[in-house]
Amino acid sequence: MRDLLPRAASAVVLVALALATLWAGGIWFGLFWLAASVAIVWEWQRMVGGNHPRARLLFGVLFVVLAADRMVDLALDFALFLTLLGCAVTALLAGPGKRVWNAAGVAYAAALILSVALLRLSVFYGWQSIIWLFAVVWVTDVMAFFGGRLIGGPKLWPRVSPKKTWSGFVTGVTCGAVSGSLVILMCVGWTLFSPLPVFALCLAAAIISQGGDLFESSLKRTFDVKDSSHLIPGHGGVMDRLDGFIAAAVFAAVIGVARAGVLAAGQGLFQW
């Protein structure tokens, strides 16, 4: 209960902010996710270390902000170029042995803001695609937590995440896939709803979100830290809260753009 109460309170606040800024749209939506990306730059650079910490943080944040600015016009190619440039600058500043890790941190933070911008700015199903992401990732996360606690059983990957169980994983991804499918059904209607590909998409997104969680757990073990920071009571840092969401958002953006182009990523997700 000591773990659950602060975790639940923080989750309620974060969910309210995410939904409120999605509803408000425009600059409020952009600033909310840009703030999350900037916090990730700080957490990552602080975790992995390296030379010139202030300069690394400054240039990492600068290039993530510049890349996000280009996404206002859906200039994905320019945004990706700025992200790569930010990776290169922070890698050079980090020094030997830390270059790849520091570059990866800038890419990871930029991946969040670029993915949600691509989906939200889609000319079709823009805000719906973000609601879909929330449904898949949040339900997967919550049901994996309770499924693991209530059912228990064999551990999923004890060397990386000792608390995760197979029962929690299966419960989480199944419920997440169902909730995501229901969101798409409500948005496109029965006539355009294709059950098998839609459920497969949602199941893949749910599994990838759990993979994102495991990736961040592995990263923390590599650098021997318990939490990425202490910004969020009960959850640790922003990376701890958004690890699964980032993985699922990147997956969704890639699928959406591959199927319908940069201008209509949401349509690529919803129409099969």
What does this structure look like?
77% of the residues lie in helices and 3% in strands. It is mostly helical and 272 residues long. The chain has one domain. It has a two-stranded antiparallel sheet. Helix 5 (99-120) crosses helix 6 and helix 5 (99-120) packs across helix 9.
At a glance:
The chain has helices at residues 4-24, 26-48, 53-71, 76-94, 99-120, 126-151, 166-188, 195-222, 238-260, 265-270; strands spanning 155-157, 161-165. It has 272 residues and is mainly alpha-helical.
Strand order of the largest sheet: 1-2
Indicate the structural class: mainly alpha
Mean pLDDT: 94
Q: Give, in order, the helices and strands.
A: HHHHHHEEHHHH
Give the helix tally.
Answer: 10
Q: Unreliable segments (pLDDT under 50, ≥5 consecutive)?
A: none
Topology, number of strands: 2
Beta-strand portion reads under 5%
Globular, elongated, flat, extended or rod-shaped: what is the shape? globular
What is the terminal-to-terminal distance?
Answer: 43 Å
Helical percent range?
Answer: over 70%
Radius of gyration, taken over Cα atoms and rounded to an integer in Å: 18 Å
Number of domains as seen in the coordinates? 1
Please describe the biggest sheet, giving its number of strands, its sense, and whether it closes into a barrel: 2 strands, antiparallel
Q: What does the secondary structure layout of this molecule look like, with pairings?
A:
Elements: H1 4-24, H2 26-48, H3 53-71, H4 76-94, H5 99-120, H6 126-151, E1 155-157, E2 161-165, H7 166-188, H8 195-222, H9 238-260, H10 265-270
Antiparallel strand pairs: 1-2
